[in-house]
TrEMBL record:
Superkingdom of origin organism: Bacteria
Entry membrane topology: Single-pass type II membrane protein
Gene designation: lepB
Entry similarity comment: Belongs to the peptidase S26 family.
Top EC class, one word: hydrolase
Keywords: Hydrolase, Membrane, Protease, Transmembrane, Transmembrane helix
SUPFAM superfamilies in the record: LexA/Signal peptidase
Catalysed reaction, written as an equation: Cleavage of hydrophobic, N-terminal signal or leader sequences from secreted and periplasmic proteins
Gene3D superfamilies with a match to the protein in the record: Umud Fragment, subunit A
Protein name: Signal peptidase I
Keyword Repeat: no
Length: 232
């Protein structure tokens, strides 16, 4: 204890007491430091990250399977029957689920199985069940009324400007003469290729059962220069 000149006393700790206090404080800080893994003990972090990667890859694989086999499917256009809107060797994406939700509509481009040919065709829906379809030159009639085919407007105009018909063969015959006009039966559709003079479609092979339809063409993805959504 020290006396100052005013007579008051100061209970200031001595040097030994200060050293003890500092040492105690240092020990307290050291005791409060977080404990790390003991030396030589393996860290589990890498194992957890590997497990998360495996889970992510498994989920991605399942999604690819679902999308590829149940929802969407790639398809290669084979031949000129859908020109000028689809070209030979173009790659497209087919929506496989849409017709599980609703029936095909006129104007939609579909891919369907042709067992007799052992391959798939791509054509455009012209008539649906109950429709009366009649093809007369470059005019298509549905239930007695001519339809406007916007997807072939430029092709028609070009042919007519040259004094020709678009739905015409060089031998002078129309390709629809092999199949009679009539009412589209229930559960089927009437289809034609956009390249009317060079297309094997319902005018030759008849009505297409809806059970054979793979899906609707929704996207052209290759070549990249042709990348576009299909207009129906």
């Amino acid at each position: 204890m020290e006396h100052n000149k005013d007579g008051y006393t100061n209970d200031s700790p001595g040097s030994e007491e200060r050293d003890d206090a500092a040492g105690s404080s240092t020990r307290d800080i050291a005791e409060r430091e977080p404990e790390g893994p003991p030396p030589g003990k393996p860290v589990k972090k890498q194992g957890n990250e590997l497990l998360e990667w495996i889970k992510a890859l498994a989920i991605a694989g399942i999604l690819v399977f679902v999308i590829r086999w149940l929802l969407l499917s790639p398809f290669i256009v084979d031949g000129p029957s859908m020109q000028p809107n689809f070209w030979n060797r173009e790659r497209i994406i087919v929506n496989k689920i849409i017709y599980d939700i609703r029936a095909p509509k006129r104007g939609e481009v579909i891919v369907f199985h042709v067992p007799e040919e052992k391959r798939d065709f791509i054509k455009r829906v012209i008539g649906v069940p109950g429709d009366t379809v009649k093809v007369d030159g470059d005019t298509v009639y549905i239930n007695g009324k001519p339809i406007e085919e916007k997807y072939l407007k430029s092709a028609y105009e070009e042919a007519h400007a040259n004094g020709e018909k678009y739905n015409y063969r060089s031998d002078g015959s129309f390709p629809n003469t092999k199949f009679p006009d009539g009412v589209v039966p229930e559960g089927t559709v009437f289809v034609m290729g956009d390249n009317r003079s060079n297309s094997e479609d319902s005018r030759m092979i008849g009505y297409i059962p809806q059970s054979r339809i793979v899906g609707r063409a929704d996207l052209i993805f290759w070549p990249l220069s042709d990348f576009s959504f299909v207009k129906h």
